[in-house]
Amino acid sequence: MTKRDKVVILGASGVAEVAYEYFTRDSPYDVVGFAVDRAYLQTPRLFDRPVVALEEIERTFPPDSHHFFAAANYSARNALRTRFYRDMTARGYRPASYISSHAFIWPNCTIGEHTMIQEDNTVQPFARVGANVILWSGNHIGHHSTIGDHTFISSHVVVSGFCRIGEACFIGVNATLANNVSIGDNCVVGAGALVLGDVPDGQTVVGMWKRQRSPAPLEPAGKE
User: Fold this and answer.
1) N or C: less crowded end of the chain, CB within 10 Å?
2) Is the separation of the CB atoms in 142 and 163 below 8 Å?
3) Rounded to two decimals, what is the model's pTM?
4) Fold adopted by 5-96
């Protein structure tokens, strides 16, 4: 694969190492280095690429010729990754995305910037995935569903049709959302949870969630 653009990965942990592998082996990006907050700068090189202090990144990787990808973990509902994303775009850097060649994304889906979609994800027709979203491996995103900005979805999650997941959410491994479910902003859905009703903002869900919700048709009103 021809490498057309240079990308700097923000982070030097396990998530950054995974991002390096994906970008290097399955994307048009050339990973030229890493950047971390100065307080966490522990090694000068990773995978034989320089690791620099984020506060001084422009000296080595100027914004007019480099993209970035924030490879931070999902702690605090993706807060660190969101900070990196907002800070770097404000400094003039262009966000990179990674979409696996082994993912199936229907052509009429909308995918936001600075998004990682790993292998074996299926994103069905009319779905919308926001900016700064990670879909780890093996998820199903149902038709007409929406994933809000700054959300992290773990592996083997089933999001059924016409669902809405708000901003800055975390959805744990093997969670299942029934049709027409709406999850508010800043929510955590635990591993293996079964969500059968709407979830308000800021809620943590474990086990089965059966909060009452207004029934909605499987097809939009006015359409046959």
Assistant:
1) C
2) yes
3) 0.91
4) Rossmann fold (3.40.50)
